[in-house]
Structure formats: C-alpha cells, structure tokens
Amino acid sequence: MRTVNLIVIHCSATKCNRRFTVKDLEDCHNARFHNKGIGYHYYIERDGQLYQTRSEEEVGMHARHYNDSSIGICYEGGLNEKGAPADTRTPAQKQTLIALLRSLKVDYPNAKIIGHRDLPWVAKDCPCFDAREEYHDLQPLVLEQ
C-alpha cells in the first residue's frame, strides 16, 4: 500500500445544467493525458453514482507535486448555469462523498481532506466549496466486528 497523506477533492468544472458523465471525463482525460486514463481515483455523478476510475494503488494525475501521496476525488459540476464557480453538489453527491470519505479514512486515517484550491500554487476555486472546513472532523466508517 502506498503512503497517502492527502485526500484531494475536485470538481469537474462543468455547468450544473449540463451532464458530464464518467465517459465524458474519460474522453477528456485521455485527450489531456495521452490515453493514460482518468487522473482521479473516484468520480461522483450528479445522481450520486460513484465510479472508481483509478486504483488507489496507482498514482493519480490530479494534483501536481502531490499525486504520489494523495487520492483524488472529483464530483460532476462546480459551475452554475452561467459558468461561474459554485457549490453545485446535489444531495446525492454530498451523501456519496461523505460515505466515500469515511470509508477512505479507514484505510488512510491520517490523511487530511482538502480541496484542490487548498494546495500551494493552485489558482482555481476547485472544488468550489471549503472541503477542509466541511470535513475537518469527519470520522472513519465504523466497521462491525
């Protein structure tokens, strides 16, 4: 298992009134990363559907200088109907994201949860909400024995 000390949340930076499916993300990232697949480890569509898009053991392509030690999660959206940055997460996305984060904290209990914008030198609003504040006290999923 590789050492993971960050869980970085992203948005797809797409308008909330237009779909951007996991297939759209795959096409976009294959074009951007020369057919190396999706750079995030997980993707959450608007209906809350969760896709594992890269093995957690595989280094991601989502946070320059931090990929070796992070897990990347992206949700569909992040822009309002006019294209301005906004927290466009649906209730289903929020529920899926919390469940995923709690699950990841079981395997990576010391990993900090941050937004892409919280990394040094990132001049984006991504993920368009304060992930560090929202999830600062999130507890791992309790597994029954």
From TrEMBL:
Q: Which domain of life is it from?
A: Bacteria
> Any idea what this protein is called?
N-acetylmuramoyl-L-alanine amidase
A GO molecular function held by the record: N-acetylmuramoyl-L-alanine amidase activity
Instruction: List, alphabetically, the CDD domains matched.
Output: PGRP
Per the record, the GO terms for biological process are: peptidoglycan catabolic process
* Peptidoglycan recognition protein family domain sequence ranges: 1-120
Matching PANTHER family, A to Z? PEPTIDOGLYCAN RECOGNITION PROTEIN, PEPTIDOGLYCAN-RECOGNITION PROTEIN LC-RELATED
UniProt record similarity statement: Belongs to the N-acetylmuramoyl-L-alanine amidase 2 family.
N-acetylmuramoyl-L-alanine amidase domain residues are 1-128
